[in-house]
Amino acid sequence: MRKLLRVDMAKGTCITEDVDKQYPNAGGRSLTSAIIAAEVNPHSHALGASNKIVIAPGLLSGTSCVNSGRLSIGAKSPLTGTIKESNVGGTAALYLGKMQIAGIVIENLPAQGSLFSLLVKTDGAELMPADDLKGLGNYDLVEKLKEKYSDRVSIISIGPSGENRLSSATVAVTDPDGRPCRHAGRGGIGAVMGSKGLKAIIVDPADAPGVTIHDRAAFKNASKFLKNMLVESEYTAPKTGEYAKYGMNLIMDPVNDLGALPSYNYRQGQFEGVSKINGKALYNTIKERGGKYNHSGCSTCIIQCSNVYVDMEGKYVTSSLEYETLFALGSNCGIDDLDALAQMDRLCDDYGIDTMETGCAIAVAMEGGVKSFGDANGAIELIKEIGKCSPMGRILGSGTEVTGKAYGVVRVPVVKGQSMAGYDPRVIKGLGVTYATSTMGADHTAGFAAVFSETDRDPKGKARMSRDSQNLMGFIDTIGICFAVTDVAKQDNGGVESMANMVNATYGWKKTMKDYIELGKNVLAMEKEFNEKAGFTAKDNRLPEFMRTEKVSPNNTVFDVSYDEIDEVFEQ
Amino acid sequence: MRKLLRVDMAKGTCITEDVDKQYPNAGGRSLTSAIIAAEVNPHSHALGASNKIVIAPGLLSGTSCVNSGRLSIGAKSPLTGTIKESNVGGTAALYLGKMQIAGIVIENLPAQGSLFSLLVKTDGAELMPADDLKGLGNYDLVEKLKEKYSDRVSIISIGPSGENRLSSATVAVTDPDGRPCRHAGRGGIGAVMGSKGLKAIIVDPADAPGVTIHDRAAFKNASKFLKNMLVESEYTAPKTGEYAKYGMNLIMDPVNDLGALPSYNYRQGQFEGVSKINGKALYNTIKERGGKYNHSGCSTCIIQCSNVYVDMEGKYVTSSLEYETLFALGSNCGIDDLDALAQMDRLCDDYGIDTMETGCAIAVAMEGGVKSFGDANGAIELIKEIGKCSPMGRILGSGTEVTGKAYGVVRVPVVKGQSMAGYDPRVIKGLGVTYATSTMGADHTAGFAAVFSETDRDPKGKARMSRDSQNLMGFIDTIGICFAVTDVAKQDNGGVESMANMVNATYGWKKTMKDYIELGKNVLAMEKEFNEKAGFTAKDNRLPEFMRTEKVSPNNTVFDVSYDEIDEVFEQ
User: Fold this and answer.
1) What is the ipTM for the molecules in this complex?
2) Domains and CATH numbers, chain B
């Protein structure tokens, strides 16, 4: 039986159900979104009793499939007001999959001010008072919990920002080294977990039965196909691939070359300090100092895009320093100091706050005159204000939109209240369409409609391209496969089909690839319906005004995909 | 010719047009909303170059009609994102009407950081650098300007909160005593004026030709009818009426008796400290100390609901201390100290920040643990933070919704981002419908659907009642008549018709009462269309969740007018 664990924070109970009774065949994002859509009043306050958190490994998580360690965490978002699925790596998805736990649902609110931790074992779960954990940063918290439980557990937790219900608060998941450095960053799910008074979930996989594979031979074949594809790619090849070397930051140079690297609060598309923070700079610094590249951030990963950043003495600072962090806190704030950026990343992970939202919020605050662009120490001070939860910290921690409002700033790069990612939509227009139309607010992983060539600047066909990519991601996020895999394993080379074949082999289904794309589409439809009930319409699928009026250098282009076309394509 | 004065802040030009060419027969709210709807992109940022401010006296302003001194100020609101007409008294509407200036339109943005004042005279207008006025509170500002120009000008101005583009910033207008104590409070129009770099408008009525009355005899008849009606009412009778004695605070006792007085952030409907801040307490305190009740806040007013509040030494503190201020900063924050409340009112007027939005924001901050309910000194400190524009001040000054977000508070009494007025919608349900459906966010003056009896608690017919009341206000706000007049002069006693007759007599029109109600309805339709283009739908016409789930004592009722009924009635 694939289990659904329902945890009632008001009653203090943990109940196990058969997930397939109510939500047949659902997993990952298709499960989180189904439960939020069916059980949460779209008009409710995201931090109120009616909201729920759903934590669900993908359908392939727990199997031996490569890069299948992704966890979906869903809720109504306090940042965007939309439904939200925030996706995270680490070790929890693998363990939950092996434990045959398809989902954990956190419901209701405990007595005000109380704090709990949840221990999830193969044979049951238990809520425990956690007053001793109050206010702890994720790093100290995890040390304390590992001492108590063991190194073999996975920990899903919030830092002080989640406890303080800041709209950009994350949910951290420990990586294979046991560090709380993998974050479901977007949309403030950490604040929802804080509102529920849940500080940490300890997932202990001891005695896990593992996933029962219906057709082992078929699974093995498909699994081998996908693995080979990754092994043979120059990007994803283990140890020698570009990702293994430069991590996700591999992308900074091509983005800068295209003129799409957001710099100075999306004022420029190229950053003069790029060579100090790009993939090579990161790789060289880590290598020189004896840190780690080619590091595993998620269970079953063979791409190894993670890294461990160390200081000049070789001491651990943070893991993993990634592109989206380096753009948001780096070029977008005019900061080109890797050590400072690593320190900021560490602070954000410890407080449990989204580096992307925080970077964009700080850039908007800089635009509002709070600090100067390029002031690395100033940015570190501001992040520490978030940790202290001072009024300044509450402004920044509430996200880019609130920061813009508080400082009367007009250039605020958000859609549906969520900040954009590291690709200027005036240059990579397919991503502009994704930012505008995603059910999650401005989100690049929702549909990475980019090819990194001049054609990205052509508005033609980008609505359709984004739509197809978003539908595909509805499937990918459901099965628990890493987003980076889709860089190599595509629909036209059998890569995606091999994933579908593995799902069929695991569960004994006979679905076609078309069925699975339909499934992805249905996930999005479900999410869209929730958002519509919450009051969102096509009119919310718009980029901020300045993206259509202000040209970004050096291409001097604006976002000019017609909204009529966008609305039309997304109606289909 | 009724003139429209267009002031371009980018070019520094002032151009006069014939208003009737582009906006025939429009005045007050029908002019502000027509211009915003026609000329402002609904998707634009409220503080960006595309927004405009329109300042328009009502159609009867400038005539001798009693209580016709209301000024409409319109823009896209930075607080709500909707179209906004904020209505204010003082002397400006009379003067502009006499100068035959139907509207002033402030367009575009000047160079960043520059500040101007605008001198409007009968024969033309002029923009002047105003760096010397930077950062001044409204009181010092007005003193300085009166010294320079004379006591006979009317001054429309912003305080530091407007300069700092806070979403709750007001536009102040001087009263007949020349004090900046009349405020277009709602919706943050002061922030828009701040974004335009316009610190003050000096309206000098010297040599004003006055309004040409087409049919003097008919005007006199109708004017006399309305005046008599007010003179004969126990509420509005000059000098002896209830309003003259207790001002708008007359209403606190009946609201409290009904159980609709918002107390402790809308947790209770009755306030145990009511007798210390109600109409009688205010009247007695003012009388004892030699302040003024029966005071005129607006030109041509005979009701005299204003007052001058003095301290124990008889020294001026503020004018006018009104019900909405006393509920918002008083009962709603658990504060029952009149002197403290008068000080808060004075501070808010000086900084140029809405007392209603600020009171509700402070109550939400109290709910979030920033201060304790009832802490008057704490509340004063918080308001001073707004004046300093510290991070805390920026949170509170950005309004109740942002404050709720920053502090993770679930009980946030706003609709479309604007805080509710001093009538709990779970008890006075007609006002609940107005809060929900008004084109302006939660606003009581948009349609005062209350009768102050038990029937207010009955959900039946309230959607229709609010709708009719809102349509009527579309007309009232167009002609510049004070909201309080409609308490006595109604549609079923000829009062409203006398106003229509005056408009006909003034302009030589032959419109029927039905035409004028249709006019009011059209104003709302225009506003609704703007909001729809901006992305608002019927789904935004909702009260916050807790108003439907949490019973308010002592009636223990929730807001239960069905949204189906509301949507249906407002579709007609």
Assistant:
1) 0.96
2) 3-203 (3.60.9.10)
